Write the structure tokens for this entry.
Amino acid sequence: MQKLIWKFFPPYEVKTTLEETRAFLGQTAELCRSIIEPEVTALVRDAEKTMYSVRIDRIKPDHLALLLTTNVLGKQIGSGSHHTYRGVLGMEGKDMLKVWHAAQEAMLERGYASEQEVAEDNKWIQEQIKGAG
């Protein structure tokens, strides 16, 4: 019953995280927005997990939005679906990589990640690009 209520009246944490997600993707994503936003939105709409992350884990909604966005981007880029051929991204893939770097930069600026963590994540995404396609 609670899930049904949350579907029509989402909790504050879900609303705020959705707003942050839409604002970030609205500023950064172009070609890939129609691919990324539905997936991130579906993750955020899992009210139990979103509320747990914000209330219990004390992750701020903007941080959670960035984390979920990078998770979805990593999965999409690593899938090879957005490559023209092995190791080379197509137009959507390049846009996804641009959004990835914007999210990493935002996490660094806001203090959610260190320079070392960002460098490791960027190295990982480059490995995903080389290995897929």
Summary: The beta strands are 83-85, 88-89. The chain has one domain: 2-131. The mean pLDDT is 92.
